[in-house]
Amino acid sequence: MIGLVFVSHSRLIAEGVCRLAQQMSGDDVQMAPAGGMAEDETLLGTDAMYIMAAIESVWSDDGVLILVDMGSAVMNAEIALEFLPGEKRNRCTISNAPLVEGAIVAAVHAGLGDTLHDVNVAAEAVLNARKIVRAK
Amino acid sequence: MAQEITLGQLRNWLILYADRVIAKEEELTRLDAAIGDADHGVNMRRGMEKVRERLQDPNNPCPDISALFRTVAMTLISAVGGAAGPLYGTFFLRAATSPNDGTHVDLAQLARMLRFGLDGLKQRGKAHIDDKTMVDAIQPAVEAMEAALASGQSLAVALAVAQQAARLGMEHTIDIRANKGRASYLGDRSIGHQDPGATSAYWLFETAAIVLGSPASPSNTG
Ligand SMILES: Nc1ncnc2c1ncn2[C@@H]1O[C@H](COP(=O)(O)OP(=O)(O)OP(=O)(O)O)[C@@H](O)[C@H]1O
Ligand SMILES: [Mg+2]
After folding, report:
1. How far is CA B198 from CA B67, B73, B105, B164, B166, in A?
2. Residue A123 is part of which domain span?
3. Residues in A touching B86 (Cβ below 8 Å)
4. Is A135 domain-assigned?
């Protein structure tokens, strides 16, 4: 079963998303938040080393899907992967999915035992979902 | 025989850069408040304070140029929470991989290091020239240095033209619209504001011209 990591500039957002996602999959799926700076929880920002530690903490040979908010979250997730040994790096994917909805869908599909690829496809598909359908 | 820059001068350059960033934190804050989230000053000050502390630690000297740049990179990557951390971090990490003689570089090697750094930074942020980012200061500076090298100019001249190009690039960010980073959320309303990252990047070349352009006792004050 794959693991999930949630990266946000805000510790509260990453932890909140993690709780929302856990509600969908129970304890079956390993998931970890990496929000804010590891060194100082009051600082908004993202932290490559913290992201790397979160990936290691949920590690499974089935892989880890990393959901991110924006800007440095993406860049620091990339750096975290570059610092991982090659055989692990190849089993990690940074998702294009939006963080909140993507986390919910990823938790469901990870809990069903889907592959890393399939979980990411399902999570990214929420980009096409419309919340409000407006009359033209 | 080509003029050379020593490991000690490169270290002094980075320390002077740290001094500059720390002294001008508020200018970066003000620029980032206008078109971003007002944290570029704090981010850079925190990062460069740690860099300065590390480079001034007498018990832990960097033995060669690659180690110096790697140390700066790792410090910025772990201390800076915003985009500037991974971007400047990647810049120095990649510069560290460029061929050098360990404890000194000539102009050709310096230009090559900065080119490596620029290419790494662009890969990391996916920004191009005129996206209103730090690339708009760094790329013209590296190109100007390469042109000076190709036409056989001295080290001091190459550093001076690089500084000038970085300054013009920084100023040009006022006139353009942001396509990358938080400022891009403002769309056309980002026009008229100078990019904070281009400003901190300009100081890198300004301090380089001061410290690396003068072979005699490198200055440690602004
Ligand atoms: N994708 C990018 N490529 C190159 N430079 C960028 C990119 N994104 C931002 N920048 C530069 O970074 C500067 C802002 O740095 P800062 O430390 O404030 O990060 P930030 O934008 O607040 O990061 P984040 O949005 O991740 O929190 C900008 O002024 C710009 O020069
Ligand atoms: Mg900012």
Report:
1. 26, 18, 26, 13, 8
2. 3-128
3. 48, 72, 75-76, 78-79
4. no
